Amino acid sequence: MELSSLSLTELRRLQARVENEIRRRSDSTRKDLLKKMQRMAADQGLSLEEVVAAAAGTEKKPKAAAAKPRRAAKAAGSKGSRVAPKYRHPEDEKATWTGRGRKPLWVEKWLAEGGALEALLIKQG
């Protein structure tokens, strides 16, 4: 096919046909790949959702395991890890601090007024 011999209108029609064919083939390829991946996961006794969640780091625990709480050990220094608060403001229960990083202003003020950091500890149990 000699493109230089086509008119602008013919080129645009051809472009639209090519774009539609690319879209159709991409959709077909995506569906085929999804089916293959689902079969591979099923062969290992897993669902594709479990595999994807594990790869994304958002793995859901099985319902039986969810009944008993368990602390997940995270690598030291891992970004975004949540740490339970260790200290609480004596008057405002919503103001807490994990004990990591900079001291909040309310802790600084408490210490400046002669208060002991241990007095702010959250009692466990």
From TrEMBL:
N-terminal signal peptide: none
Main location: cytoplasm
Single GO term (MF): transcription cis-regulatory region binding
Domain DNA-binding protein H-NS-like C-terminal stretches: 77-122
GO cellular component: cytosol; nucleoid; protein-DNA complex
Keywords: Cytoplasm, DNA-binding
Subcellular location as annotated: Cytoplasm, Nucleoid
Region spans: Disordered: 57-96
InterPro entries (alphabetical): H-NS_C_dom, H-NS_C_dom_sf
Keyword Ion transport assigned: no
Compositionally biased tracts (Low complexity): 74-84
SUPFAM superfamilies documented for this protein: H-NS histone-like proteins (SSF81273)
Entry similarity comment: Belongs to the histone-like protein H-NS family.
The protein's name in its UniProt record: Transcriptional regulator
